[in-house]
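dumping this here before i forget
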Amino acid sequence: AELSWPDLEGAPGDDLAKARTVRVVDEAGRTVDAVDVREPVGVEIRFVVQRRGKPVFPRIKITDGRGEIAFNALDTDIRWREPAEPGEYVSTAWIPANLLNEGLMSVDAGVASFGGAKLVNHFNLPNVLTFHVQDPGVGDSAKGLLGGQLRGVVRPLLEWTCERA
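structure:
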């Protein structure tokens, strides 16, 4: 659930941005390899911007144990629209509680820039981390009282409305 490159020279990346650490974290900031489906989970990317250049932004992809893509996400905050000052950055993507299904999840993490319709990766770390999503089966998750497992990569706990017609 964590991988680090203490030596920047040997770290993945290019002359603009290099990876320092990627890890899966709980709300308290602890590195975790298993999470309760009812709790948010973070993917933390620590990286170094080595020089001013193109605007960069962190990005992740989550896949399940069968290789099905749950989602791709990138930080679209306005702070990444201008070139970042050189230095170390820590960015965490928070996955909401009750989104992912039970099972093993794999994380791709990276830092990229826009290059027209495609992304230009400064570093891309495919399948760099894995973590387990577990459901305690106490009835307050998306599967309610169902004893089995719901199919699919995601299984959000949706808000429902109902009225008698």
